Automatic annotation (TrEMBL):
Record protein name field: Arginase
GO molecular function: arginase activity; manganese ion binding
Pathway: Nitrogen metabolism; urea cycle; L-ornithine and urea from L-arginine: step 1/1
Cofactors named for this entry: Mn(2+)
Cofactor binding: number and manner: Binds 2 manganese ions per subunit.
One Pfam family from the record: Arginase
Keywords on record: Arginine metabolism, Hydrolase, Manganese, Metal-binding, Urea cycle
Organism: Capitella teleta
Amino acid sequence: MSFSTSIRSLLTAARVSGVPRRLAHRDVGVLGVPFCKGQPRPGVAQAPQRLRDYGMLKKLETMGYRVHDYGDLQFQEFPDDYPAWNIKYPRSIGASCKKISNVVEEVTEKGQVALTLGGDHSLSIGTVHGHAMAEPNMCLIWVDAHSDINTPMASPSGNIHGMVLSFLAKELQKYVPRVPGMEWVKPCLSTKDIAFIGLRDLDPAERCIIEQYNITCYTMHEVDRMGIHRVLEEALHSVNPNLDRPIHLSYDIDSLDPAVSPSTGTPVPGGLSIREGMYIAEEIAATGQLTGIDLVEVNPELGSKQDQELTLFTACEIIGACFGKRRKGNVPEDYVIPTPAESMEGFTSS
Ligand SMILES: NC(=[NH2+])NCCC[C@H](N)C(=O)O
Ligand SMILES: [Mn+2]
Ligand SMILES: [Mn+2]
């Protein structure tokens, strides 16, 4: 049996057994992170509230989840947060991510699926860390136009949202200096636990790290060559061959093509279609192992009103799919096809 057949039958088994194991709890813990210091463009901090106003959490409730909204994270101010090497705002981001890590760890331990709404991608230092503290066997699927694995010394921008994985990956610590604010971070992942999907804008150090450490990576080139179906099968097989590991899905909205998610700080042409983006979410949801989700880099202040609406719409569709909404339709557990007799009850015919 080829691995592709075996993954297929595992996925089918997960589906047939009905509600995914974790999602069976039907409890979602939501954390808003109105955070923008990991990159230069203001506006991304408005996303958590805008996503709520757009109805994202209502949508999950309608789908049958109990949504526990922990509100927006409050940050400590660091007035003298000058750069360390070229790293911008290390103390602010470090302290915030420490808080985020603690919240996500707690939420995960309660058996809730942790849904973190960013904010820029630097917050994933906290979410992935917290998730790994609660679930040490976790693996990570990073859907993004960027690999966000620059080391502080190699980063061309100094923006922490492009360095997230260098702080978390054990094998990369020899390239990472002591950064003020980040002392608490325990590198909690192996490069073997990471799978990238959707990449198309990599800096030299990032490409070099991916090759040297043989990180599972499906760029848009592979999506074009293999199709999204095989990309998902292989990506899941490489980090989670028996589908028995908890999955953290870090979803950067800029993975999608700017045609469907224009309002984001670092858009890159040639991205995932909304269909590919939904397919990724549907397949990962179907494993029943999705226990932590980040939705990051929505910037509802960029572009026209129409661009902003479209980006919020796309984000809500992706999150719906992450929580089991399927394009082929869903049937509630106790659903019965209504018969005329029952539907007419209470009505009198004229
Ligand atoms: N999460 C993101 N949108 N990251 C963009 C990173 C861009 C670039 N690679 C950098 O290091 O600055
Ligand atoms: Mn990113
Ligand atoms: Mn990105």
